[in-house]
Amino acid sequence: IIAIVLLYFTVFSGSKQDLKVLVFSKTMGFRHESIEVGQEAIKQLGIKNGFQVEITEDASVFKESFLKDFQVIIFLNSTGDILAQVLQSQMERFIQAGGGFVGIHSAVDTEYAWEWYGKLVGAYFDSHPNNPNVREAYIDVLNKEHPASDSIPERWKVEDEWYNYKNINPDLNILMK
Q1: What pTM does this model have?
Q2: Which of 22, 25, 30, 117 gives a 20 to 30 Å CA spacing to 87?
Q3: Residue 79: what are its φ and ψ, rounded to 5°?
Q4: Which helix (H) or strand (E) holds 93?
Q5: What percent of the chain has pLDDT over 90?
Q6: What is the spatial distance between Cα 131 and Cα 129, in angstroms, rounded to a whole number?
Q7: With the C-alpha atoms ordered 86, 98, 3, 116, is the resulting torsion angle positive or negative?
C-alpha cells in the first residue's frame, strides 16, 4: 500500500503544503483486514510529508461542496457498489476538473456497473491466481522514464495478495507488470 501511495505523490505536481487527501474505504462486499493498517499508513505519510489526510467511509461526502477542498481521492480497499449515481457524477466532475485518484488493491473490486470508473481504475477484479492468495512475486518495471517508476529497481520483489483482471482498458499506460 505504502509504495503505491508514495509513487503517486512523487508525481503530484502541487505543493505538499496545500495537499489534502481524502481516503475512502467503504465496502459493500469483502472487507479486507488491512483497511485500518492502510489508513494509518497514509496518515503517517501525511504527517511525515506535510499533507493533510481525511479518512471516511461515508459516501455522502462525495459532493462538489466537500470535494473542492481536496486534491486527491484514494479508494483504499473499497468493494462493491459504494456510490449512488448522483455521487458518481460528483466524483467524475472532481477528476475532470483535475483532481487526482489513487485506487489501492480492491478498488478494482468496486463499482462494476459504472463504466467511467472501470476506465479510471483500468480493469476489474476477476479472481485470485494463487492459493494461498498472498505470495511473493516479482514486479518488472517496463517504463523507467516515467516519474512514477524512474526510481524503482528494474525488478522488485513484493509479497502481496495478487489478482487476475477482466475488462482491461486497452488505453492503459502500463509502467510495471
Answers
A1: 0.88
A2: 30
A3: -150, 150
A4: helix 85-96
A5: 81
A6: 7
A7: positive
